[in-house]
Every structure is written in C-alpha cells, then in structure tokens.
TrEMBL record:
InterPro entries: Cell_wall_metabolism_enzyme, Dup_hybrid_motif, M23ase_b-sheet_dom. This is Peptidase M23. Residues 56-117, 142-177 form the M23ase beta-sheet core domain. Gene3D superfamilies: Glucose Permease (Domain IIA) (2.70.70.10). It holds the Pfam family Peptidase_M23. Residues 642-668 have a biased composition (Basic residues). GO terms for molecular function: metalloendopeptidase activity. It comes from the Bacteria.
Length: 668
C-alpha cells in the first residue's frame, strides 16, 4: 500500500481546483454529528462520486443493520427546510438548513418524527396526493443537533435498508461528507483496480495495431503495485478508462474512488478529484463514463480524460485534455494512482510501446473482377466511422457516396479476415458505401451541433434539439418505419430531452390509449406523448428504437385487506405502468402509501383513532389512461379457531409428547 497525503497532491491543482482544495480544507470539522448511532463504529454502502445509473452518487449510504426503523438524528442545529415524498429517487426525504449555510439531506426514510409527520399527512390529505413536496418556513420546524427527526427505511429507489446522507453547500453543490472527519467510519484499506481500457481517439490512432478499444486486467504484484501482463502498443492520441473501487474496513461493498492521477513519462497529464460536484445537471455524468460500454455490458468505465462537451469541473488536464500522446517508437511509462478519502492509495504501472500504423498497398489499377464481400458493418466512434468488410476477396478502395458525389477511401488495415476503412465524419457524411459487390446505406441525415437550437424534418417526423440536448456533435442517423423510428442508437447519451413529432402510416384505432415506447432490450418502456391530429408529439432523454403501441388493458388490483384499521392492496400494470391511484371510503379520500418495488399500497389514516366504515373504492390508472376500479365492503377479518388434528392423522410434524394424566408427584 502506498500512502500519500491528498492535501499535497491536490495543492498542485490550479484555478478551479485551488478553489476545490480551499473548500475542502475549510470544511468545518466537528460541526456535524453522525446521523445514525453517533459515536459508534459504522460502515458504508456507498460514497460520494460512486458511478450509478445516469448520475454520480451524491452522498454516503450509511448501513442500518439490514433493517428499517433506526433513529435518524439531526446532524446539527437548523430547521427543516424541505419535506418530500416521492415514489422513486430518495423516497421519503428531509432537508435541514443550518446556520453555516450548508444543508444536510436524509433519504429513503421510513417515517418522519413528530410534528413533521402529522404536518406532512395533513398536507397530503389536503392535496389528496401521496407524492408531495413541502417547504416549511424557518420558524415552523427548528431542530437541534442530535434531535430525532425520522426513522431509517427503504423507500424510493433504495435497493435495501440504509440512510442516504448528503451535505450540500449554500450553492447546492454536493460535498464529500467523509471530509468532515466522522470518527464512526474507519478506512485503512487502499482502493483497487479491476479493469482498464485504452481507446484510439482519432482516425490516425491505433491500439495494438487496430482502431479498437482494448481492455486489460490489472494484476496486483507482491510489491503492492498493479501491472498488466499483456503487451501494449499504441500510436497517436489515445484515451485511458478505468474501473476501480475503494474498499473499507468491515464491509464488502465496492465504493468509488476519490482521486485519480495519471502521469506519462513522469509528467502529470490528468487528475480527477471528487471533493465536490454541482447538482445542476447530474446527467452530465453520462459524458464522463464510457456510456456505450455501460449500455452494452453494464460495466461503468470512468474516462480518464476530459471529453468534448464536458461542463463538470472535476478534472485537471494538460493541453491535450488528458489524452495520451504516443507519436514515436519509444517505450513510454504510464503511472495511474488512485486515492480514497482517507489518503489510502494504489498505483498501476504500464509500459506503452509506440508503433505507427502500417499503410496497406492498394492496386494502382482496378481489377476487372469485382471483389466479393461476405458482409459490411459500420460503427461511429467519436468523429470516425469505422467500416468493416468481412471476407473481402481482393484488397480494394471503398466507394463513399456523399450527396451523389463519389469519394475513394483506401483501406486502413487488415486483421483476421476483416478489412477496415476509417472515415472522418467531420469531413464527409456518407449516404451509402460500396465495397466490392456489397452496398450499404448509412441513414445519416446531417450533423447536429451542440449548444444551439436545431430542428431536423424528415418525411414523417420532426426532431427538435434544444441548446442543451447533446454533449457533442451528433451525426444524426434516422430510420423511419410505418409504426415507429430509430434515432441513432441507445449508446449515445443525451444531456437533456429531444422533442419528436411522428406521423404513423396508419392512425391507431384508439389514439387516446396509444403512446410512444422505447425498446430496451426485449422490454418496451413507456415514453408517452400527446396526439395533435395525426401526429404524436413526445420527448425523450434517450436515443434508440421507438414504436407506437396501444395499451387498452387496465391495471391489476388485488385487495389484501379492507378492515376498520387498515386497507392494503397489490397494484401492477404490464405495459405502460402505474400512473396514479386513489382510495375512497364512503366517498372520502384516504391516503395510500406506495412501494413500487413490492407493487404494494397501504392506508395511512388522518386520525388514527377513527375506524374505516362503509364502502371501499380503489381507483388505479395506468399511464395510458386505463382505469381499474375495485369496490368492497369494509369488514373485520374472520379469524378461524385453530383445530386440533385427530389422533393418528398423518402429519409431517413430530407429535408433541403426551403428558400423563395420573396424579401429580408431590415435591419433597
């Protein structure tokens, strides 16, 4: 294990990073207390900056003994500034504003302490809504340090019981809670590497002779540092990506790393620091990971370079934005250092040999025989279109057609029966490609630039891009079908929504129940939309394959209990998903809590001492507008008395010993 003080490491930062370091050093030590069992050792299931779906994790996940109902205490004096109940996300969540300008956040709560609980329930009944957001005045709910504010739970998007805890500054930036010196957490274990990838960043770049992303498995040596066993040869501008985790004492969870530093031949070229990050656009995270690999495999690689379109200020790089420059035939040393929040560190050492690409000879004159190709495949990577011809019988140039003009493209390299051509999409956006006897249509429509409003109109569709919709130039490719369309594919991330107008060939018989859906593997996910005549208008935050589908099946409602004390049911929907639910007893609205993970709703009375009496009516509506109604009389459950089995009846249980009915033995 290599130890290094993060303060000295971070002091090399300049500009915005000096501000980050100054902010970290100014974090008040001892101001906040730990919100779960303060003073007792605890462990974490997540830290600031963990790579999650569509976002960096914004705080720490405090373990709660794998159960709900632990006391959650206010971390410092302040007042309840926000109370929110939502089906997903943080579930039941409290915000406390503190005199120092900071805010602490407590998520996935089971219940709120009084008087907040009664206040919340009253407002839910007034608005007749389970989901709600309230902003009490500073005088309404003052709290003191250590005061009971809630019980821990598993609500919202939580995958298991825990407390999500955040500390935010006055500008709503997420701060690393572990920099506030909570003694309850121990960490003497260094972070570790699990996978590394190197990718070419331009059409002139190569990794091991190919324009291909290559993964490597770091191996820990007995001396403590990591290496990779495979040889690495590269040329041009290349990018490094990592999967790495931090371990902690007493727990097997894999947490994120706090800092990454990369040196090329002894010179720092990249540094990543997760002291804090802004809360204004969490989806920018998708541009900082290898989003395409995450969509295809689920593996989340952190880009160790500053990608185009990034607005997060969590990097310090050289003049090449952290991309490694290998432009000679020498051996180059690369050192990657990981740091966690407790100054534990690990090092990965690589050697990269510079190897220029080999040019392929192309016949000066075309052969009279047309070369044959088994099949063609294309893939757009950054600004390069990789064209692969498999089983090419004779080396030849590719015919690239751009607006009815012909461009000849020589092959770049051959490997294992694959001939590869590399086209710079910034210069040419092809309509079709012909190699030998195979012709491939590309479906490219145009270039969509970031940071401006753009609209593209097709034959039966219109796409509207806002000035924040995309991170970088999008080489728009669209395939229109009678009942849907494909917009590029799901491996390209969006920063914000794209508007879509689509006119199907044939109007659906029931347009009110017909909406847009996006294919996610074999599943169809509801997107929505509204009809404007014969055109469906919808917005999406993902690209991919869309179809119009009709959902005329109402949700499923299964009553579990309808007694004077409690009402509960299971609700589910097989297509568009649950949109809303309401319960009424004798026409009076009743609050029903909802756990979507269990498809479960249950009653929460406004006045606990009043019994439910009369007729129950449950109304559940899906997002397509189908309504399921269940009506029942409220009655007490009938408890059947236990019956004793007759002697000699077969049973899997062992018979209880029979006590003799003779006279009791006297004690002497």
């Amino acid at each position: 294990m290599i130890k290094k003080h993060l303060f000295f490491f971070c002091c090399f930062f300049t500009g915005a990073f000096q501000m980050a370091v100054a902010q970290r050093e100014s974090f008040p030590k001892g101001y906040f207390q730990f919100p779960i069992f303060p003073g007792q050792k605890n462990t974490l299931a997540g830290v600031l900056g963990d790579l999650r779906t569509n976002h960096f994790h914004a705080g720490i996940d405090i373990r709660t003994q794998q159960r709900e109902g632990l006391q959650v205490l206010a971390a410092a004096d302040g007042y309840i500034s926000r109370i929110k109940v939502q089906t997903t996300g943080y579930g039941n969540v409290l915000f406390i504003k503190h005199p120092n300008g900071m805010t602490t956040v407590y998520g996935h709560l089971l219940t709120f302490a009084e008087p907040m609980g009664s206040y919340l329930r009253q407002k839910q009944y007034e608005r007749q809504s389970f989901e709600i957001e309230l902003n009490p005045s500073p005088e309404q709910f003052p709290v003191t340090k250590g005061q009971l504010i809630a019980l821990s739970g598993n609500t919202g998007g939580s995958a298991g019981p825990h407390l999500h805890f955040e500390i935010r500054d006055s500008k709503d930036n997420y701060l690393n809670p572990l920099f506030f010196d909570f003694s309850e957490i121990d960490d003497k274990i260094p972070p570790y590497f699990t996978s590394m990838a190197i990718r070419p960043m331009s059409g002139k770049s190569r990794v091991n002779g190919e324009f291909e992303r290559v993964t490597f498995r770091p191996v820990r040596q007995k001396e403590g540092y990591y290496t990779v066993s495979q040889p690495i040869k590269a040329w041009g501008e290349i990018g490094l990506e990592l999967i790495a985790f931090d371990a902690m004492n007493g727990v097997n969870f894999r947490n994120g790393v706090n800092c990454v530093e990369i040196k090329l031949d002894g010179q720092e070229v990249f540094a990543y620091n997760m002291t804090s990050f802004p809360g204004w656009s969490t989806r920018d995270y998708n541009n900082l990971i290898d989003y395409a690999t995450e969509q295809r495999t689920g593996a989340r690689y952190l880009k160790c370079y500053n990608p185009d379109g990034n607005q997060y200020n969590v990097h310090r790089t050289d003049g090449y934005r952290g991309k490694l420059q290998i432009r000679d035939t020498l051996m180059h040393d690369v050192e990657v250092t990981l740091f966690d929040s407790y100054e534990n560190s690990s090092v990965l050492r690589l050697r990269i040999k510079g190897e220029p690409p080999q040019e392929l000879p192309v016949p000066a004159e075309e052969s009279e025989t047309v070369p044959t190709v088994a099949y063609l495949k294309t893939e757009a990577v950054e600004n390069v279109l990789k064209i692969s011809a498999f089983g090419l019988s004779q080396l030849t140039e590719a015919d690239i057609y751009v607006n009815n003009k012909l461009l000849k493209l020589p092959p770049s390299y051959q490997i294992s029966g694959e001939t590869v051509y590399l086209l710079d999409l910034r210069e040419s956006l092809p309509d079709s490609i012909q190699i030998g006897n195979k012709l491939l249509k590309t479906e490219f429509k145009g270039r969509i630039k970031p940071n401006i409003l753009e609209t593209y109109k097709g034959d039966r569709y219109t796409l509207r891009f806002g000035n924040q919709s995309i991170f970088d130039t999008l080489y728009l490719a669209v395939q229109s079908r009678p009942n849907g369309l494909t917009i590029n594919d799901e491996t390209i991330p969006l920063r914000d929504a794209v508007g879509v107008n689509f006119r199907p060939d044939v109007m659906p018989l029931n347009p009110e129940k017909t909406h847009a859906y996006r294919f996610d593997g074999e599943r169809m996910r509801f997107v929505g939309g509204k009809w404007q005549g014969e055109i469906l208008d919808f917005t999406t935050r993902e690209l991919g394959n869309f179809a119009i589908a009709t959902d005329e099946t109402p949700p499923s409602v299964k009553l579990i209990q309808s007694s004077k004390k409690s009402i509960s049911a299971r609700i589910s929907d097989g297509m568009s998903g649950i949109g809303s639910f309401n319960a009424f007893v004798n026409g009076e609205w009743v609050l029903m809590n909802y756990d979507y993970k269990r498809n479960y709703i249950w009653s929460d009375k406004l006045v606990d001492t009043l019994d439910f009496e009369g007729e129950l009516r449950l109304e559940v509506t899906d997002r397509a507008g189908n309504i399921a109604i269940l009506q029942a009389e409220i009655k007490e459950p009938v408890v059947k008395p236990a019956t004793r089995k007759k002697h000699g009846t077969a049973s899997r249980r062992k018979s209880a010993p029979v006590r003799s009915k003779g006279p009791k033995r006297k004690r002497h």
